[in-house]
TrEMBL record:
Protein name according to UniProt: 2'-5' RNA ligase
Domain of life: Bacteria
Organism per entry: Streptomyces nanshensis
Molecular function GO terms recorded: 2',3'-cyclic-nucleotide 3'-phosphodiesterase activity; ligase activity; RNA 2',3'-cyclic 3'-phosphodiesterase activity
Domain Phosphoesterase HXTX: 19-89
Length: 107
C-alpha cells in the first residue's frame, strides 16, 4: 500500500471561514477552475513524509512509532506561507511555523 505521514488541519481551519477558505475561493474563481476536480475539505492534509509502497506487515510498526513520536510532541501553530502546483493535477500550500522558535523545536 502507498503510505504517507500527514497532519490533519483542525476543524476550524476547514470550516469554510478564514484565510484558507478565502484563498481557495479565489483559486476556484480563476478561469478554467471549473474543469478541475477539487478534493473535499475532509481530505485536506499537510504531507510530512511520503513512504511510497510499504508492505502491510510493516505498516503497523510504522504506525506505532509515528504515534509515539506524535505523543511526545507539542501542538504546532502553522500558517499558510505560499503555494503552487505539482504539474496539472495537484495544488499545494506551503506552511510556516507561527511559533517564535518554529515547528518541531522544543522550549
Amino acid at each position: 500500500m502507498r503510505l504517507f505521514t500527514a497532519l490533519l488541519p483542525p476543524a476550524y481551519v476547514l470550516d469554510g471561514s478564514g484565510q484558507l477558505a478565502d484563498q481557495v475561493a479565489a483559486l476556484r474563481s480563476l478561469a478554467g477552475a471549473e474543469t478541475l476536480r477539487w478534493t473535499e475539505r475532509a481530505n485536506w492534509h499537510i504531507t510530512l513524509a511520503f513512504y511510497g509502497e510499504v508492505d502491510e506487515a510493516r505498516s503497523d510498526g510504522l504506525r506505532e512509532r509515528l504515534a509515539r513520536a506524535a505523543r511526545r510532541g507539542r501542538p504546532l501553530r502553522l500558517r499558510i506561507a505560499g503555494g503552487g502546483h505539482f504539474g496539472e493535477r495537484s495544488l499545494w500550500a506551503a506552511v510556516q511555523g507561527a511559533d517564535a522558535d518554529g515547528p518541531g523545536t522544543s522550549g
